[in-house]
Design a protein that fits this description.
This protein is mostly helical. It has two helices and no strands. It has one domain. It is 83% helix and 0% strand. Helix 1 runs antiparallel to helix 2. The termini are close together.
């Protein structure tokens, strides 16, 4: 059992959850500056977590 692969999968799941949450917030935005900033923050964090998780899972080799 490889800890790095598990951590990569966890990061990927967190990234997907962040992107879904940003999409839900985006559908409910009424135009306020605070709401738009919140959507951008969750979307950027979701993308970062998703990309780092996928790259970690892909680069770790099983022995």
């Amino acid at each position: 059992m490889n800890i790095k692969r598990i951590f990569g999968a966890l990061l990927t799941v967190l990234g997907i959850a962040g992107l879904i949450y940003a999409a839900v917030l985006f559908t409910n935005v009424s135009g306020g500056t605070h709401a738009i900033k919140e959507v951008i923050i969750y979307a950027v964090l979701g993308i970062i977590f998703f990309i780092s998780g996928i790259s970690l899972v892909r680069t770790v080799r099983d022995n």
